[in-house]
Amino acid sequence: MDKLDKITVSAPGKLILMGEHSVVYGHPCLVTSVAQYLTISVLKIPQKKLVLNSCCVDVENYHKPISDLTMGDVPIGARFVETAVRNFFQAYPDDFGISVETVRHIGHTYGFGSSSAVTVCIIYALSELSGLKLNRKKLFDLSFKTVTDVQHAGSGFDIASAIWGGSLYYVTGGKIIEPLNIPDLPLVVGYTGVKADTCTLIKQVAEKRKNESDKVSRIFAAITQLVDEAIIYLKKGDYQRAGRLFDFNQDYLRNLGVSTQKLEDLISAAKKAGATGAKLSGAGGGDCMIAITPDHKKQAVADAITGAGGIVIDVKTNAEGVRIENDR
Fold first, then answer.
1. In CATH terms, are 6-182+318-324 and 187-313 the same topology?
2. Radius of gyration over alpha carbons of the chain, in Å?
């Protein structure tokens, strides 16, 4: 197999459409990739070490031997890259090192999955540089291990979204990763201005599940039913009914205690302005909300979200998954 010496790789961000939190406990979710790409350039070097330069996460000229990766102090901005490189070389030993530079960054602000995107980019780049050319499932398994090694929690839907692209029906840990043939979604996305802490919110729901197990189990079962129904309407392009399911999903997320007043304000404003349904997207506590909106209402909904104190983010759904940029 031919081996490259340098490669530039991009992976998309994601928006979870339905199934937040329940997906952590083995239930399905719907996720779509968005065309906010993270791009890294990776150069093979003869020294068996990692060199990392990523000004967007305040990591400059960071050096570490491959044998010492994840040992000692690791800068926050280097954790996913360092763990990904360690895991790859543990699984597939080789005699080279790499120099990594971030070319374009999604940014941590909006909750689009930058940590998962950079993890996928690193594993994919190493797969290509080593000549292994791992298939998507092997890329997923190693990337998912990396994210759980760092975060000690997570379901992996953002990893799958970064690898496969498009829109997916996904079950925890990659038990099911099913691409969905659905049209580009007519979404308006609003950012609350508040950066949420996903791990804290997952722990919060875990505590609620422990203390109110029957209630939370019923909520998760109901969300699963909504996810299964939503596939039918999204494939048909029936956004009126899909919007109603968004509303029901938001009701359940509210009952889980992960919505906030700011999210509720943006959701309410969007619906009053003509969205057929709206909900938070992600762990909650801040970050983004999404509204299914007919094209002729999009400007009104965007203006309403802005008027309620949100920031409208232009996104394109069903984006392509991880890819090599060298020839683009």
1. no
2. 20
Please state which CATH class domain 187-313 belongs to: alpha beta
Picking from 242, 233, 117, the residue whose alpha carbon sits closest to that of residue 180 is 233
DSSP state of 149: H
Domain ranges within the chain, ordered by starting residue = 6-182+318-324, 187-313
Q: What is the DSSP string of 87-103?
A: HHHHHS--S-EEEEEEE
Q: Is the pTM for the entire model greater than 0.90?
A: yes
Position 195 scores a pLDDT of 86
Please tell me the distance from the alpha carbon of residue 87 to that of residue 4, in angstroms, as a whole number. 20
Residue 124 to residue 322: CA distance in whole angstroms: 8
Phi, psi of 170 (to 5 degrees): -135, 140
Q: Which residue type sits at 172?
A: T
Give residue 305's Cα distance to chain centre: 23
Contact 78, 40 (CB under 8 A): no
Residues recognised as catalytic = 158
- Cα 184–Cα 185–Cα 188 angle in degrees, nearest 5: 130
Query: Is CATH 3.30.230.10 the classification given to domain 6-182+318-324?
Result: yes
Averages of pLDDT over runs of 10 residues in the chain (328 residues) are 80 95 96 93 95 82 93 89 96 95 70 82 96 96 95 89 97 95 91 87 94 97 97 94 97 96 97 98 93 96 98 93 80
312 and 189 Cβ atoms separated by less than 8 Å: yes
In single-letter form, the type of residue at position 126 comes to L
For 277, the token pair is 């349904």
Q: Which pLDDT score, from 0 to 100, does residue 152 have?
A: 82
